[in-house]
Design goal:
Helix content: over 70%
Order of helices and strands: HH
Shape: elongated
Oligomer: single chain
Radius of gyration: 15 Å
Length: about 60
């Protein structure tokens, strides 16, 4: 497996895991808990999305 594809797969897995975590925290928040518990999962989700976007651009450029 080439390095670009491995990076994209890693970014995708990171995005999936943080999406699940963010969803769990959103449900927890809607149950009446504080909004501060959404900050870290939201930031990690954005970081995962940015990583996946960067890896996709890098893979497209290297073709």
């Amino acid at each position: 497996m080439d390095r670009g594809k491995a990076g994209f797969i890693t970014a995708f897995v990171c995005l999936c895991i943080t999406s699940a975590w963010l969803t769990i925290n959103l449900v927890w928040f809607l149950g009446g808990n504080s909004a501060r518990e959404l900050i870290l999962p939201a930031l990690l989700f954005l970081a995962g999305a940015a990583l996946m976007y960067r890896e996709a651009r890098r893979a497209r450029r290297s073709k």
